[in-house]
Design brief:
- This protein is of the alpha+beta class.
- The protein is built from nine helices and 15 strands.
- Strands 3, 4, 5, 6, 7, 8, 9 and 10 form an eight-stranded mixed β-sheet that branches.
- A hairpin with a 4-residue loop joins β13 and β14.
Length: 325
């Protein structure tokens, strides 16, 4: 009921009477009073004025099921929210929940991720209260060969969400790094369980450095956070909701063609390594060229001195010749 009370208070510009809340939720005034006090203890500033009711003054930067449910505007993403203060990995948790029958659209969130990982087994730190670690559980009826494109769909959603929250210029380093001022602020890891011609489930994991103020010396030249770049504290739950809204919209567009035809131009406009000299770290034979954009299947177009090559995400990394980007 606490999520519903929060939603009701947010919907009103003024005060909401205790009686209205009682009638709305079919509970006693004492139950409403207890729920409001629990919200206050969680950090919400709520005014209670006799003969007027309750009014929400400010919201803390906390991640909780109640907070996320109370601000949800999506149609299907986040229909069920799994939140735990600490998790090993939201992707691992999502895969486990998928095996147990969790539905399409489930949102898995934690405040502190202890064993997060990125592409190629890299570790991704998520300190408590400072970042976003979340995963989407999807059960699309698509060809398994098309699943990797959802990484690029998620990249667009994260980029647009951060832009809305901060007004910063945000870009994408193909295929899955979110970049501000040539430094990585977030990343995406997509994992799938499938048969030859059938997807069991797909998990899209997203990590974003939000309020992180410092990084280890070995990462300081390539990692950053929203706070370091903007100087402003961003409400993480609100950012999650905005990203979910964008992902839902882009995902529905993707399903119509099972490729990126409709968003290629938009993705290219955000791609920070487009028209840049890059080194493709192909295990068979690394090579250099100019990145030109993506195909409708999300492949990177790279012009070398002898030909144009198509680079699939997979286990291949692309680095800027003169730096991270």
């Amino acid at each position: 009921m606490k999520a519903e009370i929060l939603a009701a208070l947010r919907e009103s510009d003024g005060y909401v009477s205790g009686q209205d809340l009682c009638e709305k939720f079919g509970v006693s005034r004492t139950a409403i009073w207890k729920a409001v006090n629990q919200l206050k203890q969680a950090g919400y500033e709520i005014e209670a004025v006799q003969n007027r009711g309750y009014h929400i003054v400010s919201t803390p930067d906390i991640l909780s099921e109640n907070e996320l449910r109370s601000i949800r505007k999506t149609q299907w993403l986040g229909n069920i929210i799994y939140y735990e203060p600490v998790m090993g990995s939201t992707n691992t948790k999502a895969m486990k929940l998928a095996e147990e029958g969790a539905p399409h659209g489930a949102l898995i969130v934690t405040d502190k991720q202890e064993s997060g990982r990125g592409r190629r087994g890299r570790k991704w730190e998520t300190p408590a209260g400072k970042a976003i670690a979340m995963s989407f559980l999807l059960r699309p009826e698509i060809n398994p060969n098309n699943a990797s494109m959802l990484t690029l769909v998620a990249a667009m959603a994260v980029t647009r969400g951060i832009e809305d929250a901060t007004r910063l210029k945000v870009g994408i380093k193909w295929p899955n790094d979110i970049v501000i001022n040539s430094k990585k602020v977030g990343g995406i890891l997509t994992e799938m369980s499938a048969q030859i011609d059938f997807v069991n489930h797909i998990v899209v994991g997203i990590g974003i450095n939000v309020q992180v103020e410092s990084f280890p010396e070995e990462l300081s030249d390539m990692a950053t956070s929203i706070y370091k770049e903007s100087g402003q504290k961003v409400n993480r739950a609100a950012l999650i909701e905005r990203i979910c809204e964008y992902f839902e919209a882009y995902y529905d567009i993707f399903l119509k063609t099972e490729d990126l035809t409709a968003i290629v131009k938009q993705y290219d406009a955000y791609m920070v390594n487009r028209n840049q000299a890059v080194r493709v770290l192909d295990p068979k034979e690394p090579y250099e060229g100019q990145a030109r954009g993506i195909t409708a299947r999300g492949e990177l177009l790279v012009d070398t001195w002898e030909s144009r090559r198509l680079v699939s995400a997979g286990e291949v990394s692309v680095r800027g010749i003169y730096g991270y980007v």
